[in-house]
Amino acid sequence: MKQSQRTIFQVDLTQIDGDGDFPCPKCGTVISPEDETETVYKIVDTRVKNEELEELVIQCNKCESKIRLVGFLAIEK
């Protein structure tokens, strides 16, 4: 039975060291921005501001947690 209401975690990409990999805040599965296969996670929502990526919402395929990725605009500058 699935939960009807899940927590949405937030990850600020400006706080991540290295090449952008980070663990899922709930289950610890390593999520890599280089993984385009959707084996580990899938993109649920994309928000764009002035034609630049502002926010991405992904879902971990292992625990089904939703994760908001923010900080794209700060990284690009």
Largest sheet: 4 strands, mixed
Runs with pLDDT <50, length 5+? none
Proportion in β-strands: 35-45%
Spatial extent as radius of gyration: 13 Å
Mean pLDDT, as a whole number? 88
In whole angstroms, the N-to-C terminal distance is 44 Å
**What are the secondary-structure elements, in order, as H or E?**
EEEEEEH
Describe this structure in words.
The protein has 77 residues and is mostly beta strands. The chain has one domain (8-76). 6% of the residues lie in helices and 42% in strands. The protein is built from 1 helix and 6 strands, in the order E-E-E-E-E-E-H. The chain has one helix at residues 72-76; strands at 8-12, 22-23, 30-31, 41-49, 52-60, 66-70. The strands form 2 sheets. It has a 4-stranded mixed beta sheet, with no helix packed on it. The chain has a two-stranded antiparallel ribbon with strand order 2-3. 9% of the residues are buried.
Task: Offer a concise description of the structure.
This protein has 77 residues and is mainly beta.
Jot down its keywords:
77 residues, mainly beta, four-stranded mixed sheet, 1 helix, 6 strands, 6% helix, 42% strand, globular
